[in-house]
Design brief:
about 280 residues; 11 strands; 9 helices; 4-stranded parallel beta sheet; alpha/beta
Length: about 280
């Protein structure tokens, strides 16, 4: 929980520590008789990874490998990993399938791919690398919102800028080869993501090897389209400032989700842009 909220966890047993602490991980796995692991712990900011590549290697690969090794030693045979579409780098086509070349252009993407390869090397391990595209939205009842410190995600930044809680939203480049010049991303609702994780655990527990699986909506929206949806939901403008491109940002990332649909029997019930924005706005008002 180095950048999350304890309150968001709900009624669970919380063990405070570091996934790189082998003794703590071993003790926790043994005491709670853990049979499956879902690994969410990782650093996620592309721009920060460009500035601090060694920091990302340390947290996303070295410490994560301690967790993996201890899990295997404790008899865990099902492992779900939160990976990222960043492993694809700048794709040659769209939508992107899991068979596309993996050529990350940021240290963040490189570390996600490196850990996927560690999983693939472990004999006898049933695993899934769920390659998120852009996780977005909030719990529909408004009880839990997306919050990071510092905040880097588009939707909460746009909502807060429109409500006067932040300065103008920075748009990182408006000269990409897209219809309106801003980056296009595939936004998937966090509720749909949660359902996919449960389905992945069920599939692995039944003996199905999953490997890499894309999680997205299969539709792309530009930065300006997202801002337009926020403005419509709030009935007020989002102040913006166009600045230079960020290193490591591909122009377009949209998922091919046929594999997720087939293997996980998964549907994106809440991942249309209007629903994502509506839930996000409700949670931050």
């Amino acid at each position: 929980m180095s950048s999350g909220l304890v309150a968001a966890l709900g009624p669970v047993t919380l063990v405070r520590g570091d996934i790189g602490d082998a003794q703590l991980v071993r003790r926790t796995l043994e005491e709670h008789r853990v049979t499956s692991v879902v690994h969410f712990a990782g650093k996620i900011c592309v721009a920060e990874s460009v500035r601090r590549p060694d920091y990302y290697i340390e947290h996303n690969v070295r410490r994560a490998s301690v967790l993996l090794d201890e899990a295997l030693a404790a008899g865990v045979r099902s492992f779900v990993f939160s990976s990222s579409a960043a492993v694809y780098g700048v794709p040659s086509g769209s939508p992107i399938s899991e068979t596309a070349r993996t050529e990350p252009i940021s240290p963040y993407g490189e570390t996600k791919l490196a850990f996927e390869r560690l999983l693939a090397e472990k004999e006898g391990l049933l695993w899934a690398a769920l390659r998120y595209f852009n996780a977005a939205g909030a719990h529909p009842d408004g009880s839990l919102s997306e919050r990071h410190e510092p905040e880097t995600h588009l939707l909460p930044l746009a909502i807060d800028a429109a409500l006067g809680r932040r300065p103008a939203l920075q748009i990182y480049g408006d000269d990409y080869p897209t219809p309106d010049g801003t980056c296009i991303r595939d936004y998937v609702h966090v509720i749909d993501l949660a359902a996919a994780h449960l389905s992945a655990l069920d599939a692995l527990s039944s003996g199905t090897q999953l490997g890499a699986v894309n999680l997205g909506s299969g539709r792309g929206h530009s930065v300006r389209q997202v801002l337009g949806a926020v403005e419509a939901a709030l009935n007020r403008p989002v102040p913006t400032l166009v600045v230079a491109r960020r290193e490591g940002d591909p122009p377009t990332l949209v998922a091919d989700i046929e594999r997720a649909s087939a293997l996980l029997q998964w549907r994106c019930d809440r991942s249309d842009l209007a629903t994502i924005v509506r839930d996000a706005v409700r949670s931050r008002r």
